[in-house]
Amino acid sequence: MKIIVGITGGIAAYKSPELVRLLKKAGHEVRCAATAHALEFTTRATLETVSGVPLYSDLFAGNATSTEHISLKDWADLLVVAPATANIIGKMASGIADDALSTLLLAMAPQRVLLAPAMNSQMWAHPALQRNLELLRSWGVVTVGPDDGPLACGTSGTGRMSDPAAIAAAVANGDWTNGDGGQRLAGERWLVTAGPTYERIDSVRFIGNYSSGKMGFALARVLAEAGAEVELVSGPTSLSISHPRIHTERVESAREMYAAATKAFPACRGAILSAAVADYRPRECADHKLKKQGSEGMTLQLVQNPDILATLGAMKAPGQTLVGFALETDNELQNAHSKLQRKNLDFIVMNSLRDAGAGFGTDTNKVTILGTDGSSKESALMSKEEIARLIVNTVTAS
Ligand code: CTP
What is the pLDDT of residue 356? Predict the structure, then answer.
């Protein structure tokens, strides 16, 4: 591909030459475009050396009627802005073109732009920035990161630019094709289950688990941004999502999730079941708060919950795609393969509790996606949003 790496003025710009190097190593033709502020953090000489071609940073270089922004946009398949500051995101969302890079961004189709935001965590959380990103995404712009971690200002939080390797992986995975104006999955309906289930013991207590719902919500967002209608069936979680193509149904128990999922599935092109469903529930649920009884312990009898994934596997019609998750602690591959067969799945996303940063309650995940066709795709440790893109790209590719 022909890729322009756009660089704006943040400290993460010192990593941009590494991104250029990785993209070139992957076989892409790369040119760089930088703002004046970017060149406070990295240099023209560095960018021209790694890319091997002159840097585009001055609208009026050469002559006053320069139209290089138009010839560059015709040349490029993709424009990756890394780092993308709050400022360039704001300009892009407002259509402001007052230097070489912002003019190029206004000339490029939004669905050919991938942004790797980087900023202080409070700037990241600001409603103006979030609104701007939301708008850009609705136009087909794709974002990678930012990650959590130490920030230049000495604090820690969300705002670090994703590693150059993760950005290069997002390019390689075709993440940006999801931004094809949000049309790639237009007309398709997908079911996603998310979060934990709560199984009531009495009127104030339940059995639950630590699932945050982040993975499922990220999957719903990626599917919707690619044009799909999404039925999101979520167990109890503090997360919320607002997107015109996402219909959220809140449930509490495994049996409620089962009812909602089995009802929605027949009208769906596919389903991704990421919920951490309780395998068992108390045999009885008291309608009042149970009192302590003497000094003896207490025995809670559990009965098995319906297996939603296996049920959808049995219901699956030709043309439907079913994706399950597996959280394994040992014999991971073997167990995941047997689950794939046993439950009549097309793909299984395996996360291992052995990997630090993967699994429940974290913002990151690391997965291996196994297909019935024998395919196996292993991810790096990435944000759940990036993992969601990898999963959606993989399971909707056929
Ligand atoms: N799942 C489900 N309904 C259940 C239990 C699990 O739909 N009652 C789904 C989960 O959403 C996940 C997958 O099944 O996609 C894997 O769940 P997991 O707990 O890893 O596997 P189990 O099927 O419970 O098998 P085992 O306990 O033997 O590992």
Answer: 72
The helix (run of H) or strand (run of E) holding residue 335 is helix 332-342
pLDDT score for 364:
81
Superfamily name and number for 2-173? Flavin prenyltransferase-like (3.40.50.1950)
Q: Sorting pLDDT into bands at 50, 70 and 90, what band is 89?
A: very high
The CATH classification number of 189-285+298-395 equals: 3.40.50.10300
The answer to whether domain 2-173 and domain 189-285+298-395 are alike in fold is: yes
**Is the CB of residue 108 less than 8 Å from the CB of residue 100?**
no
Report field, pTM of the whole predicted structure over 0.70: no
Q: Is 196 near ligand 1, meaning CB less than 6 Å away?
A: no
Domain range summary for the chain, segments of one domain joined by + = 2-173, 189-285+298-395
Q: Whose CA is nearest to atom 27 of ligand 1?
A: 279
Q: Which residues are catalytic?
A: 153
Please name the residue that has the structure tokens 């591959």. 333
How many angstroms separate the CA atoms of 119 and 124, rounded? 6
Q: Which pLDDT does position 384 carry in this prediction?
A: 85
Find out whether the beta carbon of 352 lies less than 6 Å from any atom of ligand 1: no
pLDDT of residue 178: 54
